[in-house]
Write a structure and sequence with these properties.
By secondary structure, the chain is α+β, with helices and mostly antiparallel strands. The chain is 21% helix and 36% strand. It has six helices and twelve strands.
C-alpha cells in the first residue's frame, strides 16, 4: 500500500513529534494485527510432525522423472510390426543408343519399400497405409521378437489410403487399444513407434500441433487429420500415433516435404468407421 506524503507547508501547522507518534502507533497496530493472523492460522493449520511430513512426501512418479514413455513403449511395441513391400521394376539392361533397330533387352529389379503397421483385432490383422503395400509382389512382416512372416492384403481403400493385412503363420498377436481422435486436443503429448528408413521399433515423441477436418494430398482429400511434430519419416507410414493412455488415436500417413516437424496422421475415428466390420 502506498503512503502519500502531505504537501509542503503541512509541517508548519503540525509538530514533527506528533507525526512521528502517529507513524509509530500505526506500525504497532499493524504488528499486532499480523501476530493475531499468525495465531489464527496456526490454530486452523497446526504444523506437521516429522512422521506426518515424511508420510505426505510425494514420491516422484515415472512421469515426473521423464520415464513415462517407457511403459507405454513396452506395452505397445508387441502390437506393432515393420513392413517390407517387395516390388519389381523393369528397366532397360543397356542404354537405348546401343540398339537402333530393336528394343533393348529388359531386366527386372526388386525394390523394397519400408512401412509400419499395427494389430487391430484378435485375428492378428494389421492396419497400415495402402500406399505402403499397393502393387507389392510380396509383403514381409517383422514382429517385435525378430520373427519374420509373410502377409497378404485382405482389404484396402485406395481413396482413404487404408489397408488391412493378414499375417501367415504368425503366433497370436496383441491388438492395440483404439482411442478417439475427436477427443484428442491440441497440445496433447503423443508418441509414434515405427520403422523409419528401415530402423525397426523406433520411438519419437511430440505433441498434437493442430487438428484438420481435411487435408489435400496429391489428388485426394483426406479427412480427420492430426498434425504433429513427432518425427515422421519414410517408413513411418502406417504406424500408430499413441496418446499417454497407450491408445491409438491416429495412423501416421505423410509428412511435409523438406519441412521438419510437420507430420500428419489419419484420425482413428475415421478409420474405425471404415473398418468397423473387421474389428472385434
Amino acid at each position: 500500500m502506498l503512503t502519500l506524503l502531505p504537501p509542503s507547508g503541512f509541517f508548519n501547522s503540525i509538530s514533527i513529534s506528533s507525526v512521528r507518534k502517529r507513524i509509530i502507533a500505526s506500525h504497532v497496530r499493524s504488528y499486532w494485527r499480523f501476530n493475531r493472523l499468525c495465531i489464527c492460522y496456526r490454530m486452523i493449520h497446526p504444523p506437521l510432525g516429522k512422521r506426518e511430513a515424511s508420510s505426505m512426501a510425494v514420491k516422484p512418479s515415472g512421469r515426473q522423472t521423464g520415464n513415462y514413455l517407457v511403459p507405454i513403449y513396452r506395452k505397445c511395441r508387441r502390437g506393432i510390426v515393420d513392413i517390407q513391400a517387395i516390388r519389381e521394376r523393369t528397366e532397360p539392361a543397356f542404354p537405348q543408343s546401343f540398339f537402333d533397330f530393336m528394343p533393348p533387352p529388359e531386366r527386372r529389379q526388386e525394390m523394397a519399400a519400408f512401412g509400419t503397421g499395427f494389430v487391430v483385432n484378435r485375428k492378428g490383422w494389421i492396419l497400415t497405409s495402402d500406399h505402403v503395400v499397393r502393387d507389392a509382389r510380396e509383403i514381409r512382416i517383422g514382429l517385435h521378437n525378430g520373427k519374420k512372416c509373410s502377409a497378404k492384403v485382405v482389404w484396402n481403400d485406395k481413396e482413404h489410403d487404408i489397408a488391412l493385412l493378414e499375417v501367415e503363420g504368425s503366433p497370436p498377436l496383441q491388438p492395440l487399444p483404439l482411442g478417439s481422435s475427436r477427443r484428442s486436443e491440441v497440445g496433447e503429448f503423443v508418441l509414434s513407434i515405427g520403422n523409419p528408413l528401415g530402423l525397426e521399433n523406433s520411438l519419437s515423441s511430440g505433441v498434437i500441433s493442430r487438428k484438420h477436418k481435411s487435408v489435400a494430398v496429391s489428388d485426394k482429400d483426406l479427412d480427420d487429420v492430426i498434425q504433429t511434430d513427432c518425427a515422421i519419416n519414410p517408413g513411418s507410414s502406417g504406424g500408430p500415433l499413441i496418446n499417454l493412455k497407450g491408445e491409438v488415436i491416429g495412423m501416421n500417413a505423410f509428412m511435409a516435404k523438406n519441412k521438419n516437424g510437420l507430420g500428419f496422421a489419419l484420425g482413428i475415428d475415421g478409420i474405425k468407421s471404415r473398418i468397423r466390420e473387421y474389428l472385434d
